[in-house]
Amino acid sequence: MIVENLVKNYGDTQALKGINFSIAAPAFVGLIGHNGSGKSTLLEILMGIKKHTSGTITFDEGLNPENFKEKLGVILQSNAFYDSIKVYELLRLFKTYYKETYDIDYLIEVLNMGSYKNKYYSSLSGGMKQKVNLALAFINKPKLVLLDEPTTGLDPLARKEFWEALHKLCNNTLLFLSSHYMEEVQEHCSKIVYLHDGNLVFAGDTKELLEKENLKSLSDVYLRISGGKKNAI
Length: 233
Prior knowledge:
By secondary structure, the protein is α/β, with parallel strands linked by helices. The chain has a single domain, classed as P-loop containing nucleotide triphosphate hydrolases (Rossmann fold), CATH 3.40.50.300. The strands form two sheets. Strands 5-6-7-3-8-9 form a six-stranded mixed sheet, with helices on both faces. The chain has a three-stranded antiparallel sheet with strand order 2-1-4, with helices on one face.
């Protein structure tokens, strides 16, 4: 994916101020930055939910305007489904939307959802719901996956299981995941896109960012930059 001079304005407010980066698949990309930095705006533009004001986005081979939605997987910060729909029914419904899909029983096995596949989605705990959301995001064997703070509110065990499932499901996939948990980003994401007040601070290898800042912890890098001790680029 190549993003060039991406700008998003909301009236007089500029949410993205000419973002440039290039990251090729496969990769786990951690999208980080403080609240209001432009993370969700960037993800929503990549999803096609919002239109950018100016700039260009070029997707990797295998993604084009004709098959984009067919090969896109998404988890939003909040989801709304029918209160009366059960997990298996929800997966079966989403399966009908795509030409090429995973077998539902395979997803249930990978995500360890067998004990609640016949329960109502609305009755599930946060961790269970997020596993179902992950199954829905991957049911179409996507090439591009965009996850907006998917582990927020999950307990440590649920977060561990979520990441384990994510690694199993990603196959030649370009994945963008926004998170405020710097330790999980550092552990699982080989690439970083770091935003600060709508500006791009850094885009590239996670190790390169740590070496550049001469720090071992991504949390320390985040506190230095987003804590105001260093001006964003």
